[in-house]
Amino acid sequence: MNPVRIGTRSSPLALWQARKVAHLLETSGISTKIIEITSSGDRSVGGDLATSVGQFVHGIDEELLTGKIDVAVHSSKDVPTFETPGISHFSYLERGCTSDVLLSQRTGKSTTLAEVLASNASTTLPDVLASLDRGATIGTVSGRRQSFLLSQRPDLLPLAVRGQVQTRLLRLKQGRVDALVLAEVGLKRLHEDGALEDWMLALSCQRIDEAQWPTAPGQGAISVHCATDRFEEMSGFRKVLNHTATEKEVLSEREQLQHLGGGCLFPAGIRSESGRLNVKVSPKNWRDLHCRGESFHTLDYNGPVEDFVAQAPEQKAEPPLVVNDGRQLISTLNSERLAMRLQSEGIRVVNHPVLDLQPLKGNWPHLNLDTISDRRKWPLLLLTSPFAARCAAEISESIPEYRRIQWVAIGEGTARACFKLGITASICGRARNSKDFATYIRENIEPTNLLLLPQSNRADDSFAEALKQSGFEVQRWIGYENKTKKVDSFSSSKDDVLLLSSPSSALAWVDNSLPIASTILVMGESTKAQLEKMEQFSESNVQVLKGPTADYITQWWNETGEQ
Q1: pLDDT at residue 46 above 80?
Q2: 3-state DSSP call for residue 512?
Q3: How far apart (Å, rounded) are the C-alpha atoms in residues 529 and 114?
Q4: 42-56, 81-95, 144-158: segment of lowest average pLDDT
Q5: Active site residue: 78, 100, 178, 496, which one?
Q6: pTM, full prediction
Q7: What is the rounded average pLDDT of the residues 417-434?
Q8: How far apart are CA 266 and CA 50, in angstroms?
Q9: What is the pLDDT of residue 312?
Q10: CATH of region 4-96+217-307, choose from 3.40.190.10, 3.20.20.370, 3.40.47.10, 3.10.320.10
Q11: Distance of CA 43 to the CA centre of its chain
Q12: Any catalytic annotation for residue 307?
């Protein structure tokens, strides 16, 4: 008899799963051969996981239909809920642990990853969240994990940390993110193989209490597929591989997920065990609500399977808060999230955007990523403003290669703009201006990657030149135009404050002959420098924002109000 050909991805975890299947078959006297296959998920390092359902599965399953492999091995949580024509699930191996863990750099007497893996202790979700600083960056592209975190801590900033588990842990060590959320089962399996280095095991770790943070449907289970027309032929293998209790649990979880109307990327945690369900589901529009600055609530259930009513929660956006009294902040930023946050602090905000963004699609170069075999050397896309993020998202609809690479945001506002557009930035420079951004890149990114830099028609090349002088290869182009938007004039009081988001906004403000406030807040030294060149602002008191925009404005507003 020919050996059973087992198709799998080539990552250490995927190979662990394939070897597990091979071991069970060979223990029963069935010879095997593992065949490694590259999936579309392995050909992306960007933060657009949410738009590619089944990207780690389909490429492997396709080889079942070609006859290149006999069975395909997957993590059950990655398998879409809809059936793929010609493909059948035929076995679920005994499930491993289903918890998520939060990892961070070790501080004080915190428990280590090694200690958590050797114990059964969990940490309550409030205590886990309390360990994170305000505005902390969290490495995860999972909609379930992102939504659960942001429903409790909207100040947190998700970033995309992709790749093998060891790569993600290295990014944590390098400071790319403040914390990571990972499935415990993968770490446990790698530890069993001796694949986790001592420094990895010494990271601070907390196992999140599953009662408050239910697993992704199928997490911890291994799914084995075959071609539908060979299902009967594979029935003997099913007797060797299938674990009945695991199959019952996973099928129940997937069934509930289907009833909720979601797939494997739906923001839902569902754990089925011994006839009971533990469920947490975020609203479908959780991302929009969060990006507007609104809180949102999850549906939570813990009880018998038969009593659960599978209905995804719905939450409509609230009308903007209205603050009628006192001085007002006139903002060119046009950020709903910023306005909502400030108005919740009693600050009256009026948005007056004065720029229109027009992408220059013909200027964006096509990327030939498949000629670069080492994904670590793929280009990085530098985004210097929310406008640049909006433009990149629009361009990536027609040039999808941009969604496969890492997006590097200058600061929190630009990273959140990416997030609003459905793409999680991979790196946030936390910089207030291009000079600080260049410093961050020089100190945190190796000069082995081409840096792609789309800028506006009003930007100069000083940022690109600073990077080149630091040894980076930079490809710069004019990616979009900032055009002055015609705005009708309006009246303002002497106490009103103007927030100018960029030098271009200052120029457009004057082009529209809009009222000049006596006090002006600007986002960056470059905007202040532009105002100093313009006679119209010569009598204004100009101050540069220092620190996160909403926090700084709130503090400044309260202090100046008291004065």
Answers
A1: no
A2: coil
A3: 52
A4: 42-56
A5: 78
A6: 0.91
A7: 93
A8: 9
A9: 85
A10: 3.40.190.10
A11: 17
A12: no
